[in-house]
TrEMBL record:
Domain ABC transmembrane type-1: start-end pairs: 69-284
Its membrane topology: Multi-pass membrane protein
Keywords assigned by UniProt, alphabetized: Membrane, Transmembrane, Transmembrane helix, Transport
Record field: transmembrane: 9-27, 73-94, 106-129, 166-183, 203-221, 262-282
PANTHER family, per database record: POLYGALACTURONAN_RHAMNOGALACTURONAN TRANSPORT SYSTEM PERMEASE PROTEIN YTEP, PROTEIN LPLB
Subcellular location: Cell membrane; Membrane
Protein name: ABC transporter permease subunit
PROSITE patterns assigned to the protein according to its UniProt record, in alphabetical order: ABC_TM1 (PS50928)
Record-stated family: Belongs to the binding-protein-dependent transport system permease family.
Subcellular location, principal: membrane
Species name: Paenibacillus phytohabitans
UniProt xrefs under Pfam families: BPD_transp_1 (PF00528)
Amino acid sequence: MKRLKRDKWLYVLLMPGILYFLIFKYVPMWGAALAFKNYQPFTGFWASEWVGFEHFRNFFQNPDFFKLLRNTLLLSLYSLAIAFPAPIIIALMLNEVRASLYKRTIQTLIYIPHFISMVIVVSLTYVLFTTQGGIINELIFQWTGQKIDFLADPHWFRPMIILQNLWKDCGFGTIIFLAAISGVDLEQYEAAHMDGASRWRQIWHITLPSIRSTIIVLLILRTGDLLDNGFEHIYLMSNALNRDVADVFDTYVYTMGITMGAFSYSTAVGLFKSVIGIFLIVSSNYLAKKFGQSGIY
């Protein structure tokens, strides 16, 4: 109570964040009970029939389950393999730039896309890559004599999603790694330079080991989102021609819950995804600590 009284203004500043999580994160958890009920809007939440794990069984036995799992995991693993290391590489490159004005200009240019709505990003993609007058396709047509339907060809769906995520979020992600690099002791670089270490050796033996804990923490958090591809982005990029590779858990929950009104079934799908996410975070955190690294808790 003494500490509470002493730091009362800090807790007052903390209240908006606490209220946000209580209202939008914890209170809605009561809705997870829908996954175990046969919810009928006219009957009500409490009076709806309790069916246990029936919706989960139906979901696992659904032929679409393995297609959704494959599409979700492939897209997430490709993004993890390509989009996660990209901010680290850019941060290392920017750290080597000595011209302050040039460095700040590059940072500003790569940060700006993060603040652009995903709707705008997809709209720009359509304008650039459409076969009906898109600049990219017009250039390809001039060079090869044919056009590529980037927006409808299923083979191009995942590369387009990853490229959009790279352009939008890669620059902003470098902020964390640049902040971690700025905390590296400069005397280590000076000692390495005196010993004749090249810049590459300094990066490999000093910079990367110094920011390893930051990389691991962010990797653990990213692992927990393996089944979360983001509804808005996937939904905007999907169409009737690429549906086989575009359908993921997020769009499936929307289709079954909002479009078809299967509220209990879609809640079960969303709950399954959340449980797997928690399992992945706990497992990756355990493995990180097992190998002597710092985890998230």
